[in-house]
Amino acid sequence: RPSYGIDTIQNLTLPYEFPTVAAYKDFTVSFPVGKIINLLDRGASFTVIAGTGTANTFNIIASTGVAQSIDLIIGDKTSVEHWGVVVGVDSGPATNAASDYCRANGTTLTAKSGVIYTTDESLNFRSIQHVDYKAQIVGTADFVTVFLGGDSTDVQQYYNQYVHKANRGGASPAVRLIGSNKNTIRVDEASIFEVYADTDSSTGGTDVYCAYNRIFVQSCTTFQINSNPSTDGTSVQWVNENQIHLQFCIDLKVFDNGYSHNSNQFWGGNFEGGSSTIEFETGTANTMRGVRGENSLQVIFGTNATNNNIIPDWFGFANAPDGAVILD
Q1: Pairing of strands 116-119, 108-111
Q2: CB 17: neighbour CB atoms within 10 A?
Q3: Are 276 and 248 in contact (CB under 8 A)?
Q4: Backbone φ, ψ for residue 149 (5° rounding)
Q5: What digits encode the pLDDT tens for the residues 249-270?
Q6: Residue-wise pLDDT tens digits, 185-236
Q7: Can you tell me the distance from the alpha carbon of 179 to that of 198, in angstroms, rounded to the nearest whole number?
Q8: What are the percentages of helix, strand and coil residues in the chain, rounded to 5?
Q9: Which element (helix H / strand E) includes 133?
């Protein structure tokens, strides 16, 4: 039974409570417009609106018992759980609906910690001013799990975007940073973290470059700088002048698809795989400092890589940079 009783339905000063969305939808008594409805399974409050609105099951929920809907009450931040994300169900549609709202309204997007969600589609967090996604997200197929960054035509982004964990198998990145300009990006763990440039705008926004960012990755199997080989070689499709802070990492690769990405500054990087590699197929004047190479770290510079620097402080054991051969 709703906790405030049927005698309070017309009283706008008292909210009415339902244990689940389904219980609200099945209720056959109309509420006055403006009535607050608490849905306990969402952990959120809604307002009764005039008419049925454009119900979408996420932030506008239509009753099946009467002709009315409720609208999610949103302040300066909103959680994906308020939009209907739960463990064990594809979180993509609800998360992207929340993302669209946050992008349009400058609202902070959050997810609670200590849970693992799955998604059957890419989550697009691009151009959201603040992202505080403390959950773990797992992509269910071979697609990019999470897009971060913005629209590179906006040169005053200054976004703060944080994702706790993003994982999946296959060749596609778990996290792809794209169109990002002057942002602070933090990821605790990703199977593959990719900084990407592309003149093809098919993923929305303008993808042409990533620059002037501060990027923090605590753990990844692969950190890579990449671009679309079918459209590359243009002067705008570049990944330049980023400050990149790495901790645990197995491999790092800068792909040669036509543009020589340059002036990226790497800090740290503990390459602790049995056969870790750092490979610059291309690139100019990129510098890595404080690199730690366990076991047999291999460093490779391609023919189109020039004036790149790797400054190690450990190769197999302390103060032995001669433990690996680095050629440019």
Answers
A1: unpaired
A2: 18
A3: no
A4: 110, -145
A5: 999 999 988 889 999 999 999 9
A6: 999 999 999 999 987 655 555 678 899 999 999 999 999 999 887 776 666 7
A7: 8
A8: 10, 45, 45
A9: strand 130-139
Tokens of 283: 């690139």
Among candidate residues 194, 195, 219, 311, the one with its CA nearest the CA of residue 273: 219
CA 260 vs CA 184, 234, 241, 301: distances in Å: 23, 10, 12, 13
Distance CA 317, CA 117 (A): 40
Q: What letter represents residue 202's amino acid?
A: S
Tokens of 136: 């773990």
The secondary element (H helix, E strand) that includes residue 247 is: strand 243-254
φ, ψ at 165 (rounded to 5°): -140, 140
Contacts of 181 (CB under 8 A, 6+ apart): 150, 152, 154, 155, 156, 157, 209, 210, 211, 212, 213
Q: What is the Rg, in whole angstroms, of the alpha carbon atoms belonging to the chain?
A: 24
| Alpha carbons 179 and 159: distance in angstroms, whole number | 12
